[in-house]
């Protein structure tokens, strides 16, 4: 997660092998999600899903901490 976007915070999903000592690693069904400790509080209770539709595939994040989000769904505010 990083600052920016229409609503203040922006999700950032990337393929990264640069794991830092203080990163948190969550694993389920052979998938690993690496979260930096600062972002963890903003993502507490969030659900990350991968959706495949006719128009394409994408990650969808349902974040109970977000009070609003932009129309494109890539940024949110708390």
Largest sheet: 4 strands, antiparallel
**Which class in CATH terms?**
Mainly Beta
| CATH topology annotation | Hypothetical Protein Aq_1857, Chain: A
Q: What's the end-to-end separation, in Å?
A: 13 Å
The number of helical segments is: 1
What would you give as the CATH superfamily? HesB-like domain
Percent strand:
35-45%
Order of the strands making up the biggest sheet: 1-2-8-7
CATH architecture: Sandwich
What is Rg?
Answer: 13 Å
- Could you give the order of the helices and strands? EEEEHEEEE
What does this structure look like?
- The mean pLDDT is about 80.
- The protein has about 80 residues and is mainly beta.
- The chain has one domain (about 1-75): HesB-like domain (Hypothetical Protein Aq_1857, Chain: A, Sandwich).
- Strand 7 (about 70) and strand 8 form a beta hairpin.
- It has one helix spanning about 35-40; strands at about 1-5, 10, 25-30, 30-35, 45-55, 55-60, 70, 75.
């Amino acid at each position: 997660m990083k600052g920016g976007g229409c609503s203040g915070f922006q999700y950032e999903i990337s393929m990264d092998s640069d794991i830092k000592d203080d990163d948190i690693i969550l694993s389920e069904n052979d998938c690993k999600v690496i979260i930096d400790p600062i972002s963890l509080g903003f993502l507490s209770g969030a659900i990350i899903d991968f959706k495949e539709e006719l128009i394409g595939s994408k990650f969808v994040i349902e974040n109970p901490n977000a009070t609003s989000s932009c129309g494109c769904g890539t940024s949110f505010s708390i």
